[in-house]
Amino acid sequence: MKANIGLIGLAVMGQNLVLNINDNGFKVAVYNRTTEKTDEFLTGPAKGTEIVGTYSIEDLVQKLETPRIVMLMVKAGTVVDHYIEQLVLLLDAGDIIIDGGNSLFTDTDRRTKALKEKGLLYIGTGVSGGEEGARHGPSIMPGGHPDAWNRVKPVLQAISAKVDGQPCCEWVGYGGAGHYVKMIHNGIEYGDMQIICEAYQLMSEGLGLSADEISSIFAEWNSAELSSYLVEITANILAYKDEDGSPLLDKILDTAGQKGTGKWTGINALDLGIPLTLIGESVFARCLSAMKDERINASQKLPKPVNRFEGNRQEALETIRNALYASKIISYAQGFRLMREAAKEYGWTLNYGKIALMWRGGCIIRSAFLNDIKQAYDSNPDLENLLLADFFVDAMRQAEPGWRKAVILSIELGIPAPAFSSALAFYDGYRTARLPANLLQAQRDYFGAHSYERTDRPRGEFFHTDWTGHGGKTASSTYNV
Ligand code: 6PG
User: Fold this and answer.
1) Contact criterion met (CB below 8 Å) for 249 and 240
2) At what angle do helices 177-201 and 261-272 cross, to 10 degrees?
3) 45 exposed, middle or buried (CB, 10 Å; 0-12, 13-18, 19+)?
4) What region holds the 6-phosphogluconate dehydrogenase C-terminal domain (predicted)?
5) Pocket (CB within 6 angstroms of ligand 1)
6) Is the ipTM, as predicted for this complex, more than 0.95?
């Protein structure tokens, strides 16, 4: 009997996905560049299963039923192109290649188009949930050539996480849409992690709470509106003790790594002109954390405020909880707003309710909160911005006073809270009908004759003023928004 699907790349995510596919009753053939890894897998985790090992791509392709499905779980970038080049020589029209890595959406777009010309159906899919998710049910975000969807749907939906019986896997859209949505997921993941870190630092350094105390607070917050995988694991991490009985967290070096998906999200937001401030701050916060030696040096030369917290701890904790929740809402509102712009720019029809549903289970950002987002888009699929949904208008109204106090506390104590504070600045800007950009336009016109529109004239009519009496009457010919 031929295998239903082939998988290339037996690193931990690949291995776990194969085991998951096998558990769901599909026959899988596997290939890995280094044969030892294949042998170790077959004699180890895959022992006693129906999983078939192969030792060349030719052999893998021969072992598959037609039309074939080959899934790549390899490092994003040129490695993906390398395997595609080999597969193209062996596959027939109508066969499907799935890339399940964290590929850049523009690469996926290019590959979908190039393979379409060869009669092959390409899918680029986000797979989120880490090792555990891959093994027991990840969130899967497939996009690419739509003709491939019906063929791969039974496998991908079977292995995905389920919430209320619904699979956390739905077709996202053409070309790079699946990987785009995964990129936004990762950007939001960066934001969620950063705001949790800011809450942690305010509690530990600001309020002087111990790791155990903070662990209990996160555990408590995890039972209400902040309930999420990342808050849950944060409570566990804080409670974890090193061999000497002290919190392991205190011994972990404060320099964050990153593989690039958060940065891509920020770059895309700049490209599309959408303020994605919270995720942007989260990427920069990681960059700042990595400048460890420079920070140590600066910490000796640039003294911090000497203020100490003197208020009511319980009240302060409540304000930090408000800041965490309100900032989270801002982050998702910005992320979904960016997706809306991307859909317009790249010609996708994104279903935001379905995206929220896909993220409700299996993935790193899974949370109760995504249910509220799903409901907001269910009741208005054309919602311009999440912040305008009744539920979130109310939530922000309730959280705002505390959030503002938490930001003030961070400023007074000199504890950095870039995501909390920039989210608040965004919120204040977003709900301001008149911003100081009138002055900005005047400045541009003053030094560069860039022209401006007037409030007392129709939009689209541009004016230039000779501000000094020495300038000419000619406006700059380019007016780029
Ligand atoms: C997921 C994660 C995963 C990501 C890691 C590391 O959804 O399972 O987003 O895809 O690669 O979390 O990301 P960084 O190294 O950039 O933090």
Assistant:
1) yes
2) 110
3) middle
4) 178-468
5) 102, 128-130, 186, 189, 257-259, 261-262, 363-364
6) yes
pLDDT tens string 408-450:
999 999 999 999 999 999 999 999 999 999 999 999 999 999 9
Contacts of 456 (CB under 8 A, 6+ apart): none
- 76 is annotated as contributing to ligand binding: yes
CA 44, CA 447: separation in Å to the nearest integer?
A: 70
Most ligand 1 atoms within 8 A of CB, residue of 364, 365, 366, 370 to mutate: 364
pLDDT single digits (tens) 121-146 = 999 999 999 999 999 999 999 999 99
Map out the domains of the chain with their CATH numbers.
5-171 (3.40.50.720), 182-431 (1.10.1040.10), 437-480 (1.20.5.320)
- Tokens standing for residue 121: 């159906």
444 carries a ligand binding annotation: yes
Q: What number is the average pLDDT over the span 236-260?
A: 98
Judge contact between 333 and 392, C-beta under 8 A. Answer: yes
Query: 437 CB contacts (<8 Å, ≥6 apart)?
Result: none
pTM, two decimal places: 0.96
The pLDDT value given to residue 470: 87
The residue count for the chain = 481
Is 71 annotated as belonging to a binding site?
Answer: no
What percentage of the chain reaches a pLDDT higher than 70? 99
Long-range contacts at 78-85 (CB < 8 A, ≥ 24 apart): 80/107, 80/111, 81/111, 83/8, 83/57, 84/111, 84/115
Based on DSSP, count helices (H) and strands (E) in the chain, helices before strands. 19, 10
User: What's the rounded Cα separation, in Å, for the pair 141 and 338?
Assistant: 17
What is the token pair recorded at 314? 């319980």
With vertex at residue 248, the alpha carbon angle to CA 244 and CA 250, rounded to the nearest 5 degrees, is 110
Nearest atom in ligand 1 to the alpha carbon of residue 193 is 17
- Taking the C-alpha atoms of residue 278 and residue 330, their distance in angstroms, rounded to an integer, is 8
Contact in structure between 88 and 140 (CB atoms under 8 Å) = no
Catalytic residue numbers, as ranges: 182, 189
User: How many CA atoms does the CB half-sphere of 202 hold within 13 Å?
Assistant: 33
